[in-house]
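Catalogue entry: protein

Sequence with per-residue tokens
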Amino acid sequence: MTTYIILSRFSPEAFEDPKNFRDLASAVSAKIKKQCPDIVWKGSFATLGRFDVVDLVEAEDPKQIEKAAMIIRAYGHSMTETLVATPWKEFLATL
């Protein structure tokens, strides 16, 4: 499986009260699980930098990742950037 990193930044219109974010996050997560069943979610992290959330996921089909990113954008009111991640040892082996 290929590893991907999905970086997300919330738009100011995403939610008015931070308490409402749990409902939004739950709804987005449910949509991704239903529409992208082949994605394996390895972890999600809140960050204090340029991005608000970093998701680490795996999938065989990059189309599933594209779809998940679009769901995050549309329903999560976020901007995303998706990166392909190669394990360090595999990367070094290709040099």
The first strand starts at residue 2 and ends at 10. The first helix runs from residue 21 to 35. The chain has one domain: 2-93.
